[in-house]
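Our consortium's second objective concerns turning raw sequence data into structural hypotheses that experimental partners can test. To show how far this objective has progressed, the report includes one record in full. It was chosen at random from the queue rather than selected for favorable results. The single chain below, 375 residues long, was entered without modification.
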Amino acid sequence: MKIQAANLIIASSEIDSNLYYATKFLAPDPLIFIQTVDEKIMIMSDLEIDRAKDQAKIDTVLSYTIYEEAAKGRGIDNPNTADILHEFFQERGIKSLVVPSYFGIRHAILLQEKGYEIEVKKDPFYEERLKKDEKEIDAIITSLRHSEDAMNSAIEFIKDAEIKDSILYSGEKVITSEYIRMLMTKHLLENGLIAQHTIVSCGEDSSSPHTEGSGPVIANVPIIIDLFPRSISTRYYADITRTIVKGTASKEVKGLYTAVSSAQEIAISMIRDGIDGKDVHNAILDHFKTLGYESGELNGRMQGFFHGTGHGVGLDVHEPPRINKKSDILHAGNVVTVEPGLYYKGIGGVRLEDIVVVQEDRAINITKYPRILEV
């Protein structure tokens, strides 16, 4: 019986997490992946074909060159990817294709011109990615433990620093955001994780949630440290944020910290199978408003709480499900962050972020690192 439909991904598995999820094979260059009801197939360059046969968790590995020569035999001088696929699809009787939302438009047009029906599937392309199995959760926990160790190395370094004219020093050297970031990056790399865009922002910089931070680290103001490294071996991410003050926190910052900490506890207490992430997010907004913390555009810039409460974590650092203003039902097996924050010009920002595993009747917080404001 001929196969009539197939999933199709054309991408580099080092970039495309769906492709890596389906194949467990890493390659820097684009490859062709086809999945039918009962078979996973990769069409590879000759350079990678033997490695793919040894390492990929799929059924069949085929040579790109063979189909390229077949297309040339039909009079095509310089076959493109669509020509190669046409040769393969004719062999298998495949007429319709399901592709991810980011599928290349050039590939789509060329395939449609050859008569193929293309359905663009909304994210998630693989729904099963949303529910992590025990092995995946263990991989996330391992990444998280190393992240907590890196966080601790940074906070202990800041704790031991001297304050001179409101600037942190290690001996005679000014401590900068860049240096703290380097300490954590080095620690993580030594333990098999890669960190990029780690946030170490202080003072006014901390009032902008994703400002990475630069320059001298300042005493007596909020310091937000947010790191989200990926394991080199498993490819699974962790995500953790802590806010500290070296020295004495102001009354305003202490108020923000108490509000954010209690908001996180409220969110975690609500999360369970079947809860709508929108309801969790709105509860946090209501909590902040009750405490007198307004959110939105204030004095010409966004202030208060103006990002999502959380997101899924796995092979991508940001993946479904989401906990924000849009409806998204959480289910047992989801692994999500819980990261409320408050940010105000002239005061700074406070954000706390833990990772939880959604269960039938509750959420299990797998983050163990303590929350301490003043160090």
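The partners drew two points from this record. The mean pLDDT is 98. Residues 130-365 form a domain with the Creatine Amidinohydrolase fold (CATH 3.90.230.10). Both points have been shared with the crystallography group to help prioritize constructs.
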